[in-house]
Amino acid sequence: MQIDNNQLLRLATAGSVDDGKSTLIGRLLYDSKSIFEDQIAAIENTSKKKGYDGVDLALFTDGLRDEREQGITIDVAYRYFTTPKRKFIIADTPGHIQYTRNMVTGASTANVAIILIDARKGVIEQTKRHSYIASLLQIPHVIVCVNKMDLVEYSEEVFNNIVSDYESFSSKLLIKDVRFIPISALVGDNVVNASEQMPWFKGSPLLNTLETMHISSDNNKIDARFAVQTVLRPQKDEFIDYRGYAGRILSGIYRKGDNVTILPSGFTSKIKTIDFYDQSLEEAFAPMSVSITLEDDIDISRGDMIVKTNNSPEPSQEFDAMICWLNNKQAQPRAKYSILHTSNEQKAMIKDVVYKVNINTYERNEEDKDFQMNDIGRVKLRTTKPLMIDSYRDNRLTGSFILIDEGTNETVAAGMII
Amino acid sequence: MSKYYLNYLDELEAEAIFILREVWAQFQNPVILFSGGKDSIVVTHLAKKAFYPSSIPFPLMHIDTGHNFPETMKFRDDLIEELGVGLIVGSVQESIDQGRVAEEKGKNASRNALQTTTLLDAIETNKIDCAIGGGRRDEEKARAKERFFSHRDDFGQWDPKNQRPELWNLLNGKHFQGEHFRAFPISNWTELDVWNYIKRENIAIPSLYFAHEREVVWRNDAWIPNSEFLKLEENEKIEFKKIRFRTLGDITITGGIESDADTLHKIVEEVATMRLTERGNRADDKRSESAMEDRKRQGYF
Question: In 3-state terms, what secondary structure has residue B214?
Answer without folding.
Answer: strand
